[in-house]
Give the backbone structure.
Amino acid sequence: WYNKGVALGELGRYEEEISCYDEALAIDRQVAPAWYNKGVALGKLGRYEEALPCYDQALAIDRQDAEAWQNKGVALAMSGRFREALESFKEAQQLGNPMAAQGIEMCLQDLKQQNQ
């Protein structure tokens, strides 16, 4: 199910991809990449709030997943939750994600604008 989900995601068939990850997770809920990829697919559909629990599940399994921290930050930022996003981007940066600095800067700018 997991591999089928990956293939469907590459084809841009995100709803079907999500269903495949659900099937894979019904078999084994400890597959962090399935949680992560489900979050990514939900994000591609603009369903950021739904993606957040997926990233949380992936991070509960592997706290060192810099990509999951990064994408959680993106989902939080896209949901307008900039303080929380900032913390996720900081975690991603500490784990070596090169894109995290951009997320941190974006959040700082957005928080500054909110305080004006």
Observations:
- Residues 48 and 79 are 7 Å apart (CA to CA).
- DSSP finds seven helices and no strands in the chain.
